[in-house]
Amino acid sequence: MPVSPTQPDTFITEFFTLLKDSVRAWITTNKESIVMGDVNVSNSLESYVNYINYSLRDEYCRRRSEGERAETVIASLITLPPPADTDVISQELLPFTSDARSWTEALSPLRGREVFYANFERMAHCLIPWIRSSSQSAVIISENEIDYQHIGLPPEMTAVRFHDLRMRLYRNDFIEKYFPVFYSFCNTVKLVDSIIEPPRFSCICGCQVIGKIWAEICAARGGDTVCYQHGWPAFMHAGFVDMPYTRMITWGDEFNRLWRSYNPQMECLTGGYPYPIEAEGSHHSVTFFLQEPYFVSSHRMVGQMYDLIVATALRYPDMTIQYRLHPESQIDYHIRHRLDSLPNVVDVTDRPLHEVYAATRVAVSHYSSTIMECLAHGCCPLVFNPTPRWRYTPDLEAESIGFISTTPDEFFDRLPRALAHRIAPTTVARWIAPPRCESQTAD
């Protein structure tokens, strides 16, 4: 039966649910064929297939809003390969290329070191407290250049830039034919791992495809795999479900409970919040932490958030209203001009995060992990979540740690309460524990 036409945003979370279910069913059917050498890489391939289909979200929502059935639209958009033939897979090691031989020579001196992975420099910076607590010299690997001095890497740390060698190390015609980029990533990671043979592989956040590939490869030869919490994915997309790490090191005991509910196979241990906290903050501002129209957000919702900044600045002319763009975001010139024309609105994008929190009384976002991180800094979270059929997890109001609004009217109803709200230290401590790594004041 056709559905009634409605706003496309209504179907955002439906798309992610159906995509995840479709890919999971396909992975389960083909699991025995998704191997590289002796390593099953089905977890990382599942994430990869989900990610490469995320761009279909808006088309799915448009067609659903025009009345098409969910099953019809998802089936026409998501094309998954037929089952594999088992004879296209071989554990035999293929001849090395000249690139592979040169990498072997260059990386052999690093054999036996712990490996930390960060997909870019900002994530490497977040790993610094954990790197400093490591008991051995280590290697940090990233797809991008890392500036030692800029982020303060320890001098004994070796940084290696990950290059996809586009080589064939193990034969799997099925993966190579349908997912050639993923196939190439697997081969390169398998080569580098076989050269260094790290006793432990560590990463931060944990949803990146290369990090998952490496965790599967490292675990298959008996290595330890660790993921450090970086924020909290309030919208649990496929990248954060059933992750392939031995354990997750979290900010606090309540996060252990949340991670286990989506990753029952993973041990969750409290490591504490390891980043700087400014003790004497003024906490005088309302700060909006902005995001791109991705996952459960849309261009319309981003526009609503900008309108909310303006409306808040006009309602509270004597209060400083801050806004901070996501590191990968850009802002339209006309929108920036509109915000900057208001005397009490301040762009704090380039300021250190702990300084922004120190000036923040109420932190506002749609689904950013800053909503939970702000608890460590003495701020009150206020979610503005206009996404239909989805509520921020955890439920901040039920947990007595903040407020959730779904419309501008609800937002302005809850803002005075958020400004006056004081969260009990014992409540915060359940979520944000003191740091338990060596460097407790890492920059």
Record field, number of beta strands: 17
- CA-based shape: globular
Gap between N and C termini: 57 Å
Query: Can you summarize the main beta sheet?
Result: 7 strands, parallel
Q: Would you tell me the structural class of the helices and strands?
A: alpha/beta
Helical region count? 17
- Order the strands across the largest sheet as they lie in space: 6-5-4-8-9-10-11
Mean pLDDT across residues: 91
Taken as a percent bin, the fraction of beta residues is 15-25%
Low-confidence stretches: 1-5, 438-443
Radius of gyration, taken over Cα atoms and rounded to an integer in Å:
23 Å
What is the topology?
Elements: H1 12-30, E1 35-36, E2 39-40, H2 42-53, H3 57-65, H4 70-77, E3 89-93, H5 98-107, E4 114-117, H6 121-132, E5 138-142, H7 148-151, E6 158-161, E7 170-172, H8 173-178, H9 180-196, E8 200-204, H10 209-220, E9 224-228, E10 247-250, H11 253-262, E11 267-270, E12 285-289, H12 299-315, E13 321-324, H13 333-340, E14 345-347, H14 353-358, E15 360-365, H15 370-373, E16 380-384, E17 403-405, H16 408-420, H17 425-431
Parallel strand pairs: 4-5, 4-8, 5-6, 8-9, 9-10, 10-11, 12-13, 12-15, 13-14, 15-16, 16-17
Antiparallel strand pairs: 1-2, 3-7
Question: Could you give a short description of this structure?
Answer:
The chain has helices spanning 12-30, 42-53, 57-65, 70-77, 98-107, 121-132, 148-151, 173-178, 180-196, 209-220, 253-262, 299-315, 333-340, 353-358, 370-373, 408-420, 425-431; strands spanning 35-36, 39-40, 89-93, 114-117, 138-142, 158-161, 170-172, 200-204, 224-228, 247-250, 267-270, 285-289, 321-324, 345-347, 360-365, 380-384, 403-405. It is an alpha/beta fold and 443 residues long.
